[in-house]
């Protein structure tokens, strides 16, 4: 199935130099990296990919596991003859990259986890995801509104209302089936704390100190267990949008 799906996956390669692979999060697409791409494409070769069910890539089944998406990404790397790269993943994109790291650590020059975690879902989080899927089936627009607003700290939602509405509009183009498949995949994902702990290459976690999804204490806990440097920004789950200076930290890491 994956070998067939790689022919349908939407991705883009640009620039010349050391390779950087950028992987978006849930309800996002490769377009989220636009500003970073502008900054680094003169000095780096960049691989952007739309994960299954997102952007211009079709869903690949009723459950889209992190393992499937990691294998699909690996097939794209092979297709483009990319042997080594720095990888940057936002949220769900980080989950996919941890799965890739587990299976193919040899392709990593470095890893940036952005608003992500090495932990698997807790029982409470799984319960909340199941409840959200029921809402998605009943009222997709309401689901998207709550999901995307919930990525921002409550006190910041007014300030970012224009961006929130843009994200909702973009997410409305995604199929309910594709969204559902990825939620189910995230519910089933493995704990990769030891995977990250045992990776001795360059790695860093960039997190929001007011992230409504991954609390500050949780970030400190898993990063310590995974022996991974952790840097906080004063924002929520959407650091790439909320903090433009994030790109400076990323550029420093990949130099």
Properties at a glance:
7 strands, Rossmann fold, globular, 12 helices, 255 residues, alpha/beta, 7-stranded mixed beta sheet, 45% helix
Provide a short characterization of the protein structure:
Helices cover 45% and strands 15% of the residues. By secondary structure, the chain is α/β, with parallel strands linked by helices.
In the sheet with the most strands, the strands line up as: 1-3-2-4-5-6-7
Number of domains: 1
Helical region count? 12
Count all strands and give the number. 7
Uncertain parts: none
Order of helices and strands: HEEHEHEHEHHHHHEHEHH
The fourth-level CATH homologous superfamily is Alpha/Beta hydrolase fold, catalytic domain
Question: What is the percent of helical residues?
Answer: 40-55%
Describe this structure in words.
With 255 residues, this protein is of the alpha/beta class. The protein has a single domain (2-254), classed as Rossmann fold (3-Layer(aba) Sandwich). It is 45% helix and 15% strand. The protein has twelve helices and seven strands. The protein has helices at 2-5, 34-40, 66-79, 92-103, 123-138, 140-149, 161-171, 176-187, 193-197, 216-225, 239-242, 246-254, and strands spanning 11-14, 19-23, 45-49, 85-90, 108-114, 202-208, 230-233. The protein has a seven-stranded mixed sheet, sandwiched between helices. α2 (34-40) links the parallel β2 (19-23) and β3 (45-49). α5 (123-138) packs across α6 (140-149). The longest helix is centred in the middle third of the chain and has 16 residues, at 123-138. It is globular. The termini are far apart.
